[in-house]
Structures are given as C-alpha cells and as structure tokens.
Write a structure and sequence with these properties.
It is a single chain. Helices cover 72% and strands 0% of the residues. With 61 residues, it is mainly alpha-helical.
Length: 61
C-alpha cells in the first residue's frame, strides 16, 4: 500500500504553522524598519521645508 506514514499529517501542519510564524516575524521586522525609515525621511523633508532650505515650487530661473 502506498500511503503516507502515520503522523505525517501532524508534521505537515506543524511545518506550516512554523513557517507562518517565521514569516510573520520576518515581515514584522521588515515593516518596522521600513516604517521607521519612512517616518524619518518624511519628518526630515518637512523640517527642511519649514526652515526654507528646500522648496517644492519650480523656480523660473
């Protein structure tokens, strides 16, 4: 008889659960890093805009 050995279904479910948890952890770490970088760049842009160091208006020079 060709079939999976007993207990294989539990191992597959366990593997899927471990992969899902690891995926969520890695995605969370990446998202946290990306969000911090984006926040820092946005804050820096608006600070420079308020100080007059940069302008979003095209000059006619």
């Amino acid at each position: 008889m060709a079939g999976a050995p007993p207990g294989t279904a539990k191992m597959i479910i366990k593997e899927i659960a471990i992969a899902s948890v690891l995926g969520f952890v890695c995605a969370g770490a990446w998202k946290y890093t990306y969000h911090n970088d984006l926040t820092k760049r946005t804050r820096s842009f608006y600070n420079m805009l308020d100080k007059g160091e940069i302008s979003v208006v095209v000059s006619d020079e």
